[in-house]
Design brief:
Chain lengths: ~300, ~325
């Protein structure tokens, strides 16, 4: 096997040669289940974005002649209508917008805050760790519903509030997981070696700690997304989440469950979308975890 | 990398000490009370010299290194003085220590299996040192890393750069560690039992490599080991540690052929020799090493020593010169083998 001379490779590329991310991407592409999941997610995302252009009816358009009609391709009610005579297809896609947005944004918020917070607490340790984790404990003990109701009282009903409320709760778990992992890593010899080679604390956390905890973190994120979507459904069900006529999968499913006996399609379609999305996320998350572990190729 | 044509100082005989350790005391605060791991250790390292520190587990040899490098855990503290190139480095703030660590002094760890980050490629870990300390651009750093890997005799260095540590063998990983240590051409390389985790044939290769790197760069080496054979092969001077103190020091040949401290002698006797009569039991040192939390008032070795006298138990015998370049901490005048 010959070694490509450095000059031939070019100057911009070499150091990035096979970074964790490039090789992870390569391994992810080879994982069929993960790629399938990713493609399904992209399709659902595209449907949600293009909802106004592909549905025949507006999502808040009430048709008095078509209250609770089963799916019918001829008149454009592909998924049928709900008990108010609104197009379920359009409503499912609009619901996807809210559910996916909440799921992804809240997970990113919890990922960023949780990883940084947990890594700092675990790495610095001592009194700093103590104070930081007690803050987490206090936030943990705050009843979630109380917190959400408080927010709605102060700021009125707003979809952003759901993100804030869910994000504020979700990062706590992440911070705890990351802190534990960091503390286990901190005393590993390669961290000590990095100290001995004069690396600063920031670069040790960034270059050595965070890549090493990505595996468990990734798994946890994929568990967070469905959890958050369900949490949003719960809030909407209680009337604290999205407001009519806007909708989300959670709202649609709870409505559908009510009409299950007379109009099963109004439960079936949103529930299928939710289930498929969660499956895809799990496959993708699993694939990401494998891809981010260099030992597993 | 090229060897600079001018003769380095250590070859022309200018003997300015590179590292001077004076009365180093390292203590750890534990729930069971203070543990004194190092009790007043003083020594110096000249440029280009190889010093061996030997002693059994728990004799404080690793803690001497950790104190020098400023790598003590939170509950550890050092007093005394460590002067590196005429500059006090004990108790320096981290930012200033980081300018010395990795560039002017580097460290090789015992277990190459755990001393490399499993999630970064070898190339990344090597170039990190360069981009961090010498602000090289990535392409230059990579080329430099490839050259250093070549110097430590790693075949196909360009290919290895993109490999992860688990794809390399133990000996290969220790070579990578040595390459990492030599990357910035440090003045002092501290090796903490670099061969303990490797099998014997690889050990010899790694020791040869260390000697070779030293001949090329003129780096001073502090080698910590409990393997006396390693010391004999590589070191110029040896210090024998027991109970956190230096009990004997001197040129390696003198120590081996004429050990003057009962502990050194017992240590040498308990080493199997090829020309020995193998029918009998190997001599061992009776008793246990001292508990560092409860040190006896006198010589730490007294409870296990065959030559113990009243004086040994009353006070710690000071380290005294017994010949040019040789010192021992023992009340006995002369130990005849």
């Amino acid at each position: 096997m010959s070694v490509t001379p450095l000059d031939a490779v070019g100057v911009a590329m070499p150091a990035e040669g096979t970074s964790l991310w490039t090789s992870a991407r390569r391994r992810l592409v080879r994982n069929r289940a993960a790629m399938g999941g990713l493609i399904v997610l992209i399709i659902i995302g595209a449907l949600a974005i293009l909802a106004p252009y592909i549905s025949a009816h507006a999502m808040d358009d009430i048709s008095w002649e078509n209250i609770g009609t089963p799916p019918d391709w001829a008149n454009g009610y592909y998924f049928g209508t709900d008990s108010n005579g609104r197009d379920l297809f359009a409503r499912t896609l609009y619901g996807a917008r809210v559910s996916l947005m909440v799921g992804i944004l809240a997970s990113i918020v919890s990922l960023v805050i949780g990883v940084i917070y947990g890594a700092v607490a675990g790495y610095v340790g001592g009194a700093v760790d103590n104070v930081m984790m007690r803050i987490v404990d206090i936030l943990y003990s705050l009843p979630f519903m109380f917190f959400v109701i408080l927010l709605t009282v102060f700021f009125g009903r707003n979809i952003l509030l759901i993100f804030v409320a869910i994000g504020a709760v979700q990062w706590l778990d992440m911070a705890r997981i990351v802190r534990g992992q960091t503390m286990a890593l901190k005393h590993r010899e390669f961290i000590e070696a990095a100290h001995a080679f004069g690396a600063s604390s920031t670069s040790i956390v960034r270059r050595h700690i965070i890549p090493n905890i990505l595996g468990p973190v990734m798994v946890f994120v994929t568990l967070t997304v469905p959890q958050v979507i369900l949490l949003e459904s719960f809030l909407s069900f209680l009337g604290l989440g999205v407001q009519e006529p806007m909708t989300s999968w959670g709202v649609l499913i709870s409505d559908g469950a009510r009409d299950m006996e007379t109009a099963p399609w109004s439960l079936l379609f949103p529930a299928t979308f939710l289930a498929v999305t969660l499956f895809s996320l799990n496959f993708l998350g699993d694939g990401l975890r494998d891809a981010l572990d260099p030992k597993d190729r | 990398m090229t060897v600079s044509p001018e003769q380095p100082g250590w070859k022309t005989g200018t003997q300015t000490p590179l590292l001077v350790v004076d009365q180093l005391v390292t203590r750890f605060a534990t729930p069971d009370g203070a543990v004194s791991a190092v009790n007043g250790v003083s020594f110096h390292v000249n440029k280009g010299e190889t010093i061996g520190i030997v002693g059994e587990s728990g004799s404080g040899k690793s803690q001497v290194l950790m104190s020098i490098m400023g790598l003590l855990p939170h509950n550890g503290s050092s007093t005394g003085s460590v002067r590196f190139d005429d500059r006090e480095i004990l108790g320096l703030p981290r930012e200033q220590l980081n300018k010395i660590r990795g560039t002017r002094m580097a460290m090789i760890f015992q277990d190459p299996m755990t001393a490399l980050n499993p999630y970064l490629t070898v190339g990344r870990q090597l170039t990190e040192v360069l981009t961090f300390h010498q602000s090289m651009n990535p392409a230059m750093a990579r080329e430099q890393a490839r050259e250093v890997l070549e110097q430590v005799h790693i075949p196909e260095p360009g290919k290895r750069l993109d490999m992860y540590p688990h794809e390399l063998s133990g000996g290969m990983r220790q070579r990578v560690m040595i390459a990492m240590g030599m990357l910035c051409r440090p003045d002092l390389l501290i090796a903490d039992e670099p061969t303990t985790a490797l099998d014997v044939t690889i050990q010899a290769e790694i020791l040869d490599l260390l000697a070779e790197q030293q001949a090329v760069t003129g780096t001073a080496i502090i080698l910590v080991t409990h393997d006396l054979g390693v010391v004999a092969g590589l070191c110029d001077r040896v210090m024998v540690m027991y109970g956190g103190r230096i009990v004997e020091q001197g040129p390696v040949r003198d120590i081996f052929y004429d050990p003057q401290h009962p502990y050194t002698r017992a240590l040498l006797l308990s080493m199997p020799r090829l020309d020995d009569d193998l029918s009998g039991d190997l001599p061992t040192i009776a008793g246990q090493p001292p508990n560092l939390a409860h040190m006896p008032p006198g010589c730490a070795f007294a409870p296990r020593c065959g030559y113990v006298s009243e004086r040994c138990i009353q006070a710690v015998p000071p380290l005294r010169d017994i010949a040019p370049g040789r010192a021992k901490a023992c009340t006995l005048d002369r130990l005849v083998a």
